Amino acid sequence: MGKVYIENVLLQATAEGDEKAFSEIFNHYRNKIYSFACRLTGSTDVADEILLDVFLRVWMKREELPEIKLFQAWLFTITRNRVFSTLKQMALRKEAENSFEKGNNLLLESTPHDFLLDKEYQDVLQKAVAQLPPQQKKVYMLIKEYGMKREEAAQELNLSPETVKHYLSEAMYSVRTYCLAHLGVYATLLIIKDLY
């Protein structure tokens, strides 16, 4: 009973914008969400991204949290749907690869928007990617949006794998920092960044 009460208090505090309360909820559930996503996708990288997306959604829906009766069930429903969307995307990657020669516009058009993320987050994410330096943007789009492996992206861009790895790391940091800062939870980046 006490555990439920504490969680309800944390949810109420999070709804009022308390980032410390949000971090406690994050720390409580992060391993469960990560393990669940990793088991279903078979990828630690994908599980990392799902974890981040799920908790970005929690923060963005924070005002509704006190009304949720079974928070854990709600959280895992979001995670499950995010995982299924990801698996669908992964299944379509090979088909998309055949159309790559159509140009960079295809990358933007084929970006999945069915991840149950709010339009606000989608808009911020697009702006974050748009502001990347040209080479970082190309690497980010090829790997994170298009699903290429680092070696494939390196060959496509005529770069070394190490250079691609560097560009991707810089791009991911910039995108996450931009998104979290513009969504009003920059402090949360410090919590999440330590996990990657």
UniProtKB/TrEMBL annotation:
GO biological process per UniProt: DNA-templated transcription initiation
Q: Which GO terms describe its molecular function?
A: DNA binding; sigma factor activity
Q: Give the RNA polymerase sigma-70 region domain ranges.
A: 26-88
Q: Does the keyword Transcription regulation apply?
A: yes
- Keyword flag 4Fe-4S: no
Q: Which family does it belong to?
A: Belongs to the sigma-70 factor family. ECF subfamily.
UniProt name for this protein: RNA polymerase sigma-70 factor
